[in-house]
Amino acid sequence: MTTAGTPPRTTATTTATTTAALAQRIEVDGRPATAENLLWPALVQTGHFTAMQVRGGKVRGLDRHLARLDAATRELFGHGVDGEHVRGLVRHILRDDTTEASVRVYVHAPDGKPSHLVTVRPPTELPATMEARAQSLRSVAYQRPFAHIKHLGGFGQARHAELARAAGFDEVLLTGPGGEVSEGAVTNIAFFDGTDVVWPDAPHLSGITMQLVRSRLPAAGLPTRQAPVTLADLPSYAAAFVTNAWGVRPVRRIDDVVYGVDEKLMATVAGAYEEVPWDAF
Q1: Alpha helix locations (H) across 23-178?
Q2: Tell me, what's the pLDDT at 1?
Q3: How far apart are CA 275 and CA 215, in angstroms?
Q4: What is the pLDDT of residue 101?
Q5: pTM over 0.85
Q6: Please, are residues 67 and 78 in contact by the beta-carbon 8 Å criterion?
Q7: Burial of 98 (0-12, 13-18, 19+ CB in 10 A)
Q8: Across the strands, what pairs with 125?
Q9: pLDDT at 64 over 90
Q10: Does residue 235 sit in helix, strand or coil?
């Protein structure tokens, strides 16, 4: 790790290839989208969702996606989610001709009971090499409200991310009082101290990829722990990486703190994730 006064501007080559692809297909409770059944989702921002990458009609961590939907629906709307029903909705929208895709399942409650909006977008593929995947992050003083829920209405984080990209960064690092590190706008972050992988102990969304990676790293020889991390602590870490539905990526820099891409670390982290079995819908 080193520090630099004026970090170089990065380019879009470090980002995923389909960040803004429009939905190819939308269904509401298994029916084609119409102006009528899209009216509530368009006007009411109370809801939540999960996002997943589907390959061969399968997804990693399906049980965790379903558990996320169920827990948030119970908290927001007082009802549970039928996991088998959700699986059927995804199978229906994928059909036989769409086995690779980015899929999102949104939950709203227009009549007080859960309604499921499912979208299909083109799949997202990260660059093959870790060097090409490396991310630059700009820290911002912002934390998502109700951070444990993957909820709708994320204008704050989205706007901070837009401003960061305009300034030459790939993503933002959300921080709280005293520079307390929490998460990225659309990622979780972890730091490597040379021995352990450290996940920030601050309000954040427990991402599915983070859950899967964290649970498997000890068996791969990488101990993990959760601990407070502040911006002032960043120079003491040897490396960092981010996770989300797209996969795992190393962090090249955060503000003026520059990290090298630790190929050995990233091979272990990526290997742990790639060994997660794929679940059929």
Answers
A1: 35-43, 62-77, 83-94, 130-133, 155-166
A2: 63
A3: 12
A4: 95
A5: yes
A6: no
A7: middle
A8: none
A9: yes
A10: helix
Q: What are phi and psi of 64, to 5 degrees?
A: -75, -35
Cβ neighbours of residue 264 closer than 8 Å, sequence gap 6 or more: none
Tokens of 202: 């601050």
Report CA-CA distances (Å) from 263 to 129, 250, 267. 10, 9, 6
**pLDDT tens-digit map of 87-143:** 999 999 998 766 899 999 999 999 899 999 999 999 999 999 999 999 999 999 999
Distances (CA, A) of 229 to 54, 198, 225: 33, 8, 12
How far is 47 from 41, CA to CA, in rounded Å? Answer: 8
Q: Residues of the chain with pLDDT > 90: what percent?
A: 88
pLDDT in tens, 154-180: 999 999 999 999 999 999 999 999 999
CA angle at 147 for the pair 257 and 120, rounded to the nearest 5°: 95
244: helix, strand or coil: strand
* d(C-alpha 33, C-alpha 228), whole Å: 44
CA–CA separation, 198 and 248 (whole Å):
15
The backbone torsions φ and ψ at residue 167, rounded to the nearest 5 degrees and listed phi first, read -90, 5
Indicate the length of the chain as a whole number.
Answer: 281
